[in-house]
What we know:
50% of the residues lie in helices and 17% in strands.
Amino acid sequence: MTNTLRTRGLxxxxxxxxxxxxxxxxxxxxxxxxxxxxxxxxxVRFGYIADFNGASLLAIADDQGLWEKHGIDVETPVFTxxxxxIQALGTDDLDFGYIGPGAMWLPASGQAKVAAINxxxxxDRVIAQAGITSIEELKGKKVAVPEGTSGDMILTMALREAxxxxxxxxxxxxxxxxxxxxxxxxxxxxxxxxxxxxxxIQEQVPDxxxxxxxxxxxxxxxxPSAFVASPSFVDEQPEATAKVLAVLREAMDYxxxxxxxxxxxxxxxxxxxxxxxxVEAENAKYMTAAEVDALTDDGTVVTWLGALNEYFVTxxxxxxxxxxxxxxxxxxxxxxxxx
Length: 339
């Protein structure tokens, strides 16, 4: 009798353990364990550029705990430009990244998806050494530009407006930091570059000339910066993609409502003076997620990207670009706000 009771007790204990284990599995599948611990986070590699446009949403997401809130374990490597991030997406070294308008031809050629529109820019300029007062005077002169960036784009557009092409100047491809030093030391005659780097240059070359800016072409094309995603990541991990978009949406709203604080957060993240980032912020238009939703639903974003496609064809960047609807994740972006 005693042995029978002991056996029944062992079965009861085992059943209790199994029940607890099953309960734990059920809670975990729902996103929370029985003890209240969160489910395992999705790992995401998200690249950025160390300026306000490229880093401000990441600074907000980190400060406000948005990654953890939406179940993301994020790694944020820094890059010097957009094309390098597109390359990293293609080699599976990155899942998301940030690009300016000058690199939009890369999604248009199928190398990335545009996950979200970040801002509309007005920070790009063609600058020249003192005494050079027109684009036409750049003929035969050395012009520095970060290849495939908005600086490259503003230069190409300014040359075209003047009836010239890139072959009319001696284009010198450099990374942004090298453009600053090369212009300041007068190794080049002009540059396609942007704020706040222009402020840095102007400290050493106060009499530089501004020959062209974004607003000169506002009737022709918009200058959107954007967050991009690996096509394979989007296809294979739709839930993680939706979580990242949800993070970006919340951070976008926070930036619009708290711009001064966002400048301070980004300054702390990048270890760059807040005044320099404020200049960059002044030269861009930032939108809430709802505003981007509306611009997506009415076709405005696709129109912007289509105009850029046309520009990139004429600039020789791409011969047969994809329809923007094929590479802009507009529906997914809007849906991320409905969950």
